[in-house]
Amino acid sequence: MTVMSFKRRRLYELFASIEKEFENLCIENIALRDKVEMLSEQLLMERGGPLSGPMPSGARHLRSLQQLAQDSVETADGQSQSTKGSSNKTKQGGGSQLTQKIKSTYRLKASTSRIVSSFKTSALTCAPVARYLGHRDGVWEVSAPPNSAVPVVATASADHTARLWDAESGVCVLQYSGHSGSVNSVRFHPSQQLVLTASGDKTAHIWRANPLASVAVFELQPKGQSSEDEIDSGERDENDGGVAEASVLRSPVLQLIGHQGPVVAADWLINSDQVITASWDRMANVYDVNTGELVTQLVGHDLELTHLAAHPSQRLVVTSSKDTTFRLWDFREAIHSVSVFQGHT
Question: Does Cytoplasm count among this protein's keywords (predicted)?
């Protein structure tokens, strides 16, 4: 859903709520007016004539009710009417005022309907076009190459694997099994055939996306494959019901260590010479992609980190945490700065 369609839907909901509340107020005021007029007529019949002379306490109470009802209608209409005059004049004025109120209500309703209808969009029909079967546990994240026309998607799963899929056919073309814990995040390199994964085994891995020439999803160079070229072509996973046959990769190009807790997310920084990871140890670590060395640790969150994202064109990173805050880290200057955002409870 786009931002514009979300805003339109939200405005539609707000206008509908306002219209409903106004209609309820109108109905309540009409009911109160009818009840007061009925009681007034009953009192006139019992007294045998118009209200005159000293009023008993019951009549004074009824007159107070009449005044309260008229004030309520006047408040809803935004008008100020005189309450002086006889009982007949009061009823005539009330009837005219009630008619005016109904007319005003329907004018507002018609106007609101025109406004709301202008935000309505044509009905959209959505249907699944492919199913991606193979994971044996929950899928935590899905991503696609940011600057590629190749129809491929990646998934990260709690079954300790990350998988690459042909987006059009739904076929798994590569399974990465190098982690010993849940794979929580998967991100493609902006320009190279590399994938970054974060795992509950306290590490992040960089591995080469090479589903081999048997599947024409990537046109990859053979050089720079994983450190041990440990790829089994056409291996069938016996536990997936024979749904897919895929190459299985077990060794990364680079393993990033240093966290003391599960790594929940990882992303490439601009220029892709560094990556950043977020962990339950309350730290965000920045690593050098060429050496795997820990460059710096971002300290400040009071509880476990839950997510992070790097800006695609600026050296900016945002991290979120269970401490109800998110932080914007600015690496554009030599001296790094951080902004803390609060408000969630």
Answer: yes
Q: Which residues of 234-256 are buried (b: 16+ CB within 10 A; e: fewer)?
A: eeebeebeebbbbbbbebbbbbb
pLDDT of residue 100: 59
Where does the chain have alpha helices with state H? 3-47, 57-77, 87-119
pLDDT tens-place string over residues 190-246: 888 899 999 999 999 999 987 543 344 444 433 344 544 455 554 444 444 344 467
Hey, what amino acid is at 64? S
pLDDT at 102: 53
- Distance, in Å, from the CA atom of 168 to the CA atom of 299, rounded to the nearest integer, reads 42
Our CA angle for 211, 148, 143, nearest 5°, is 70
Domains of the chain: 3-119 (no CATH), 139-341 (2.130.10.10)
Tell me if 265 sits within 8 A of 291, measured CB to CB.
Answer: no
